Amino acid sequence: MGFAKSFKDGTTPSIAIIGAGLSGICAAIQLQRQLQLTTYKVFELEADVGGTWFRNTYPGCQSDAPAHLYSYSFAPNYDFSKKFVPQSEVLAYLRATAKTYNIYDKILLQTRVSSMQWNEGRKKWILHWVKSATGEEGDHEADVVIHGAGMLRYPKVPKEFDAFKGDMWHSARWNHSVDLTGKRVGVVGTSASGIQIVSTIADRVESLEVYGRSPVYVTPQLNITYNRVWQFLFRHVYFIYTLYRTFWYYYVDSTILLYHKLAWFSAFHRAVVYFVTWLHRFLQLPFDNDLRRKVTPDYELATRRIVLSDKFFPTLKKPNVTLHRDPIVTISGGTIETKSGSKCELDILVLATGFDWISNFPVGYWIGRGGTDIATNWGESPTTYYGTCVPKAPNFFLIWGPNVGIVHHALTSLIELQVMYAIRAISHMLEKDIATMEIKQEAVEKFLETLDRRIQRTIFTTKVRSKCRGFWWGSVTEFWWKMKDLHPERFHVEGREGVNAKSLLNGPRPEREPFEEVD
Ligand SMILES: Cc1cc2nc3c(=O)[nH]c(=O)nc-3n(C[C@H](O)[C@H](O)[C@H](O)COP(=O)(O)OP(=O)(O)OC[C@H]3O[C@@H](n4cnc5c(N)ncnc54)[C@H](O)[C@@H]3O)c2cc1C
Ligand SMILES: NC(=O)c1ccc[n+]([C@@H]2O[C@H](COP(=O)([O-])OP(=O)(O)OC[C@H]3O[C@@H](n4cnc5c(N)ncnc54)[C@H](OP(=O)(O)O)[C@@H]3O)[C@@H](O)[C@H]2O)c1
User: Which Pfam families does the protein's record reference (predicted)?
Assistant: First the structure.
């Protein structure tokens, strides 16, 4: 496919990218690589790029996807030290990639986009931004918005913990100014973040109380160190790197079968993984029946994300570590009491209690056509087209948006596919001189029907721990298949001045919304 670089009159669209994490960096690079477009700006509220990997600096933070997969397909890193790398290496990779592709100059750091509003008269998005360092604010007009603001940014802090009077922080806001040495520490949550924290800090603290009311399935991590020979081969024998990455891509993608309920192959797959988790518990806690019982999940395998860890169970055996499976009932001052009556006085409480994605879209943040507050209208049930396009939001592309969470693969794969979809759409706009593209409601309905049908095939319908339409229950390969073609007929389009959109696509002209002006 040949890519146009400009509209017919030689101008190029102004593009605003929100966020400089994996999604935003990918979008910026692909605009340059695929369309040679440089008329974009990236708004990033933090002081540097990296997103999740800039924000999460808790002890033990690391990626659980093979590093060669959890990096862009177009920007190989031959020097990863391990199969699963620590946060510092992912962050270093993202910074280096942003430098290599010269996108730092385009990033406005410490600049938060506080609202986005579609201006029908100008056929542009008006982004209101605020600089956190100076308080300076202003508006920025963009023809196209690529929203890569992430889903795991806002800490979920359950209300009951407000009563705790010692030092307390969330895993994603680690307080490095407090030394844990010799302190009585509590960690709430034993999912991915909690398990990594507990396994790393136990030796430093006087006592560690772990509040894990719902254990997760844990499999061995079996990390591999890539020594200089590996790194040499990756760098100099090109096909080895490509083969290795491709192997992980398809191997990891095949694990989607774990979540499907009917096929005998899936049941077999699940039985094997179930056995591995059982054996892992048994081998790591052979003489601790009580502890083994406490870390055994009471729900079906794979109805939550499986966590990889070689260190968690051995850590729980340490004399200064106690796992509380019964729920917390009272928090008073620095004391936490659980249902069984156990009371612990703590100096520090760490909340590894997850994230609240809906806070990414506060009321008034995202106002689309006709003054529609898009995310507020969604309520608990977002409606998108493959997590990427949204009715009433012309020329707007969500990257890793709602509806397409994936639990089995590296998110980089999904993010790259969504970015390429946006690139295809922008390219189409340039080639056909299109001013606006807005996904049709029918296309969204059809996609949501697919999600509803899909979930019936998964084990999530037996024990629903997740929002029905939150996830894409297919393989990433199938997602690629669905997203590889733009399908322009699924969009309402309007041509740029003097261009009749109807003649371009043979589609009906969209109904016009009332003229919407921005103050
Ligand atoms: C601890 C942890 C470990 C993880 N490990 C894995 C893993 O191993 N494998 C995996 O696939 N996924 C993992 N994830 C999920 C991870 O979030 C994604 O893989 C990926 O980093 C998402 O990238 P993103 O760019 O879409 O979002 P983010 O990384 O969240 O980046 C979004 C960026 O947008 C900025 N931003 C947000 N709102 C605004 C605004 N209004 N104005 C300006 N800037 C804004 C943020 O500051 C941030 O820099 C992990 C998540 C966590 C929390
Ligand atoms: N790749 C990695 O290695 C890695 C590392 C960290 C995070 N992540 C990703 O980041 C996301 C978030 O992970 P996370 O571990 O931070 O959060 P999470 O998966 O949402 O888990 C939150 C934990 O906190 C517990 N919790 C929540 N509210 C509680 C309360 N009021 N009282 C007691 N316990 C409470 C939960 O228990 P209940 O289940 O009982 O509610 C759960 O154990 C996930 O998508 C994960 O995959 C990945």
Answer: FMO-like (PF00743)
If you take atom 14 of ligand 2, which residue's CA is the nearest one? 354
Residue 278 and residue 133 share a domain? no
pLDDT of residue 459: 78
Residue 418 near ligand 2, beta carbon < 6 Å: no
- Could you tell me where the DSSP H helices lie in 78-206? 87-100, 192-201
H and E: helices and strands count for the chain = 14, 21
Relative to the CA of 52, which ligand 2 atom is closest?
10
Q: Domain range spanning residue 182?
A: 159-224+232-351
Mutate to test the pocket of ligand 1, among 26, 44, 52 (most ligand atoms within 8 A of CB): 52
* Residue from 54, 113, 152 to probe ligand 1 pocket by mutation (most atoms less than 8 Å from CB): 152
Query: Of the bound ligands, which one is closest to the alpha carbon of residue 149?
Result: 1
Ligand 2, atom 19, residue with closest C-alpha = 191
In this prediction, residue 380 carries a pLDDT of 76
Query: What CATH number did the domain enclosing 306 receive?
Result: 3.50.50.60
pTM tops 0.85, yes or no: yes
Nearest CA to ligand 2 atom 26: 353
Of 1 and 293, the one with more pLDDT: 293
Residue 152: CB within 6 Å of ligand 2? yes
What letter represents residue 250's amino acid?
A: Y
Q: Where are the alpha helices (DSSP H) in 170-302?
A: 192-201, 228-236, 238-254, 264-284, 289-294
For the stretch 217-248, pLDDT in tens is 999 999 999 999 999 999 999 799 999 999 99
3-state helix, strand, coil in the chain (%, to 5): 35, 20, 45
Q: How confident is the model at residue 462 (pLDDT cuts 50, 70, 90)?
A: low
**How far, in Å, from the CA of 389 to the mean position of ligand 1?**
19
Do 297 and 166 belong to one domain? yes
Task: Please give the Cα distance from 8 to 20 (Å, whole number).
Answer: 30
Over residues 352-370, mean pLDDT: 93
CB-ligand 2 contact for 191 (6 Å cutoff): yes
For residues 375 and 492, state if they share a domain.
Answer: yes
Residue 180 C-beta-side C-alpha neighbours within 13 Å? 24
Same domain, 379 and 484: yes
The ligand 2 atom nearest the CA atom of 65: 1
Percent of the chain whose pLDDT exceeds 90: 82
The Cα 359–Cα 370 span in angstroms is 23
- For residues 329 and 450, membership in a common domain is answered with no
Mean pLDDT value across the chain: 92
